[in-house]
Amino acid sequence: MRRRREGLGRQIVGRTLLATSTSVLMAAAGSYIFYGLLITYEPHYFLEHDPWRPEWIEVGAMGAICSIAVLASGLVALGFARRLVVPLNAVAAGARRIAAGNLSARARVSRYDMGEASRLVENFNVMAERLEAASSEISRWNSVIAHELRTPVTILHGRLQGLADGVFEPDPALFRNLLSQVDGLARLIEDLRTVSLVESGHLDCRPAPVALNEEISALLELLRPDLLAEGFPLEARLDAGIVEADAGRVRQALLALIENARRHAPPGLIRIAMALDADMVRITVADSGPGLPPDFVDQAFKPFRRADKTRKGSGLGLAVVRGIAQAHGGTARYVSDPARFEILFPRR
């Protein structure tokens, strides 16, 4: 069991008292020993000399005793200073290495470190680990964003260059293809913006009383023709009632879940449900797909995570869904039996 460390202030007072007590006790004990020996071996000394005027032998003995007491006190203080300074120097050295670009640098932790000094080392190492993880995440984000942007930008550049050079004839099908690439870029940029706002805690969410079932019904009617043409009929079961929510953000989250089903599930029925009780709103989206692999469930709602990297998609949709749910004071989750995604937040 780990021994509970005392506070640094208490240890400083304790070690100061210990050093002082050591010097006083050694001086007192040394005096008793010296005069005891003097009386034992020179009993006539005090009869031959004025007891109120110390002789050189007494001055020398007192000097030696005080020197030994100061040395002992200094050794106690030195040990204390080392236990205090070593962790501080370790933190300072780690900070210099991190400032020089070595984010893997850590300060050494010893079980002999004291109180607050030890906690300083531990907290520094936690900060360094988080800084290293954040740096790695930023590098990964930059790489993934560049990859996601490269494909549509390359397609747009090639088609537009072909139009400019007369290689392609202008026709509606080509323009629809270009427009779909632009729409894909716009969705990617909006998802990146939303995830960035969620990560920074600045997502603009303005809940207001709204008949959420009507808002969702309107969205589904707008999506139904295109989804039906691709083999995805919609089934909606929505409880009627007033909910405190940002209707635009909820539509954005629901659209991301439906788009996720369209991209990754085989053609089949998509079921959307909203259940209201006195305290909670539960929005559910289920499709005819096999669901998420068990080893991917914990990663599903993190940015740029995809269970099947061979399929199209940025891996941002579910991160957007969870961010919007959290902005409403709730969460988003995957339930495996039966496979479905759920958005939950307080009804207020």
Automatic annotation (TrEMBL):
It is found in: Membrane. Its EC number is 2.7.13.3. Pfam families: HAMP, HATPase_c, HisKA. Residues 82-136 form the HAMP domain. InterPro entries: HAMP_dom, HATPase_C_sf, HATPase_dom, His_kinase_dom, HisK_dim/P_dom, HisK_dim/P_sf, Sensor_HK_Regulatory, Sig_transdc_His_kin-like_C. Keywords: Kinase, Membrane, Phosphoprotein, Transferase, Transmembrane, Transmembrane helix, Two-component regulatory system. It catalyses: ATP + protein L-histidine = ADP + protein N-phospho-L-histidine. GO terms for cellular component: membrane. PROSITE patterns: HAMP, HIS_KIN. Residues 144-348 form the Histidine kinase domain. The chain crosses the membrane at residues 12-39, 59-81. Gene3D superfamilies: 1.10.287.130, 6.10.340.10, Histidine kinase-like ATPase, C-terminal domain. It is an enzyme of class 2 (transferase). The keyword Iron does not apply. Its main location: membrane. It comes from the Bacteria. GO terms for molecular function: phosphorelay sensor kinase activity. PANTHER family: SENSOR HISTIDINE KINASE YXDK, TWO-COMPONENT HISTIDINE KINASE. This is histidine kinase.
